[in-house]
């Protein structure tokens, strides 16, 4: 088991934030940083995935591990995330169906695009297998499947040239914004909520910036010097969010995705804001870790077991939505839902690590 560290801490922080934000309207949502900026925890989650891949594909002496081994390990992780997505989708549909039966309310069957499944289960099951059928609030893992699936390409190109990997990634990002590229949804019309052609840039940035942070004193020096710029960007984001200042998509010039704040396409405004958040909060972990040891341990535990915790959090947030729907919400209900949910996330992380410790070790 890894010791608490900044990556696991911030990943755990992102998981708790996503859980709370996926119960819209609850009391604690207003205190999450997504309410005070343009970007949110989704950007942090994907960026840290790229940062972690850079660490995971190196050997203990710092040299890159064999390319074939990296490819196999990342493809195995892709299968693991894919399996989690299919399982979580089936459980979410069962929760929605069960709630509709228990509450005798067939309208619940329409929640979060679930109506397509109950109206046409044959096509919907095929769409689930293809990842083209997604429920609302259950669309991050499909993006993650695609990004981890293409990560071997990013890693292998970056070993030849990190600049080339970043350049190719940015070119794909820019072309996607200009030509509005995205993967289609099926059954039903539309496209993916998270456009993998755009969000792959954030994964690549995480990977390349970790390499630069490890090998380049100049990069580390410039991140410290740009700290005031990061703080300024964060403050601007607070003003834009609090006063709900957003570009009108009908008034901005073409290509419009270059000028709006759309989450689906990770538009430049969101990307710049997230980079500002990185610059502003990079020193925070070292400052707070010695002072909030128990919280650091808890969040790092969530981050170490991010797939299981995220999957559980997605289901718990759906249950929380149903509870608020039936009861009408309120501060006490929100406290009970959020408190019990966060405890359940901690138990999930503990159980995963307990099971791994109890697993029989292979003989030498």
Task: Itemize the secondary structure elements and their pairings.
Blueprint: H1 6-21, H2 41-56, H3 67-102, H4 115-119, H5 121-130, H6 140-160, H7 162-179, H8 196-215, H9 217-225, H10 227-242, H11 268-281, H12 284-288, H13 293-304, H14 306-327, H15 331-358
Description:
It contains 15 helices and no strands. Helix 2 crosses helix 8 (196-215), helix 7 (162-179) runs antiparallel to helix 8 (196-215) and helix 14 (306-327) packs antiparallel against helix 15 (331-358). With 364 residues, the chain is an all-alpha fold. The radius of gyration is 21 Å and the shape is globular. The two termini are 20 Å apart. The protein has one domain (6-353).
Question: Which of globular, elongated, flat, extended, rod-shaped describes the shape?
Answer: globular
Whole-angstrom Rg: 21 Å
Largest β-sheet summary: none
Helix and strand sequence: HHHHHHHHHHHHHHH
Global mean pLDDT: 94
SSE class: mainly alpha
Query: What portion of residues belong to β-strands?
Result: under 5%
How many structural domains does the protein architecture include? 1
Query: Count of DSSP E strands?
Result: 0
How many helices? The count is 15
Termini, distance in Å? 20 Å
């Amino acid at each position: 088991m890894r010791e608490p560290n900044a990556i696991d801490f911030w990943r755990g922080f992102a998981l708790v934030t996503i859980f709370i934000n996926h119960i819209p309207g609850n009391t604690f949502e207003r205190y999450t940083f997504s309410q005070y900026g343009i970007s949110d925890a989704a950007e942090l989650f994907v960026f840290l995935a790229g940062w972690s891949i850079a660490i995971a594909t190196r050997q203990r002496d710092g040299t890159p591990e064999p390319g074939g081994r990296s490819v196999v390990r990342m493809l195995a992780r892709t299968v693991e995330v894919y399996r989690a997505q299919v399982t979580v989708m089936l459980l979410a549909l069962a929760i929605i169906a069960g709630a509709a039966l228990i509450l005798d309310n067939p309208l619940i069957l329409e929640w979060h695009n679930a109506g397509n499944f109950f109206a046409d289960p044959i096509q919907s099951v095929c769409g689930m297998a293809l990842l083209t059928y997604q429920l609302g609030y259950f669309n991050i893992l499909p993006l993650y499947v695609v990004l981890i699936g293409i990560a071997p390409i990013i890693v292998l190109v970056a070993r030849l040239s990190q600049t080339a990997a970043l350049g190719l990634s940015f070119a794909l990002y820019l072309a996607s914004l200009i030509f509005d590229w995205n993967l289609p949804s099926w059954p039903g019309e539309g496209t993916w909520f998270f456009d993998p052609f755009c969000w792959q840039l954030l994964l690549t940035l995480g990977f390349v910036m970790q390499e630069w942070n490890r090998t380049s004193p100049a990069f580390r020096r410039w991140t410290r010097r740009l700290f005031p710029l990061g703080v300024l960007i964060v403050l601007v984001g607070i003003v834009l969010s609090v006063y709900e200042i957003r570009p009108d998509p009908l008034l901005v010039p073409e290509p419009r995705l270059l000028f709006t704040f759309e989450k689906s396409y990770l538009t430049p405004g969101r990307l710049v804001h997230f980079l500002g958040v990185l610059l502003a909060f990079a020193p925070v972990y070292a400052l707070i870790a010695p002072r909030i040891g128990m919280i650091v341990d808890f969040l790092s535990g969530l981050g170490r077991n991010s797939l299981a915790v995220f999957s559980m959090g997605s289901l718990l947030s759906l249950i929380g939505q149903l509870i608020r729907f039936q009861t009408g919400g309120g501060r006490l209900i929100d406290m009970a839902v959020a408190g019990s949910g966060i405890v359940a996330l901690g138990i999930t992380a503990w159980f995963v690590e307990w099971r791994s410790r109890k697993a029989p070790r292979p003989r030498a």
